[in-house]
Design brief:
Blueprint: E1 7-12, H1 17-32, E2 36-39, H2 41-50, E3 58-59, E4 69-76, H3 78-88, E5 95-99, E6 109-110, H4 114-122, E7 127-131, E8 134-139, E9 145-151, E10 154-159, E11 166-172, E12 175-182, E13 184-188, H5 196-199, E14 212-217, E15 227-229, E16 235-239, E17 247-251, E18 255-259, E19 264-269, E20 274-278, H6 284-292
Helix pairs in contact: 1-4
Amino acid sequence: MTTDQRSILVVAHAQRGDTVQAAARVMAALHEAGARPVLAPEDREELIAQRPAFARAAALGADIPVGDIELAIVLGGDGTILRAAELVRGGTAPILGINMGHVGFLAEIERDDMDAAVHRVISRDYRVEERLALSVRVKDAAGHVIYSTWALNEATVEKASRERMLEVVIEIDGKPLSTFGCDGMVVSTPTGSTAYNFSAGGPVIWPTVEAMAVVPLSAHALFAKPLVVGPETSVAIEVLERTSGIGILWCDGRRSHELPPGARVVVRRSDQPVRLARLHPAAFTDRLVRKFRLPVEGWRGPAGTAGAAT
């Protein structure tokens, strides 16, 4: 059904006690403000089993279509935020992450600021930041599209067997670049550059830079360095028919598809970005320093700026 009441999706990890308590507080604040809390069906079922009061929330899809969701409040870490991005895909709702995990790189605020954040959501006191997402298609050896999906962080082609190696050829904008054996390939967005890409030795890309990183995993080749390509670039990874193993496509570590020899994975910029709600203007440098606990002792800063040593 459709309603004129404001619908706010709440995404929470139902297996954590602190997150369940936080979800109850958020939903109470939304009810008090006259908004309608909405839960994904699987979350709703699990939360009701712990607290019957969660039955007051509407069910996403059954009661409220995704297109009617105004905003999603996510209580959890990056994995929960990625799940929320799946839930609101197809709509226009931005995502506000409240970090209940560890690093929480995608989250906007920490749990201590949760009540103030909900108040600002109710007041519509936030700005929306659009993040580049990936469109991912798998073609078979005959060129037929057999699977399609999307990714916010990254699309990875990985070997399925530990003892086997993938033989791949990398193509950029329809031109072959190199062939080699490897454990896999990562194609990352700027948002995902601090995730799998970072662990694989790829570059950190500022969110304001529209680009994609292409990073080999344990490649057996002289030229197999990370690449940064433009946002309109088409990146293709072909699993050569002579390869000895089966590959697997993973998108954001959540959606997967098997890649037999001869399969071709084509990655492009998606026409639909992911929208993040932001409450505080903050430099990405500050986020890197805070989340990775980078040492900055001894910094004096440019002469004449606030914070510079006198």
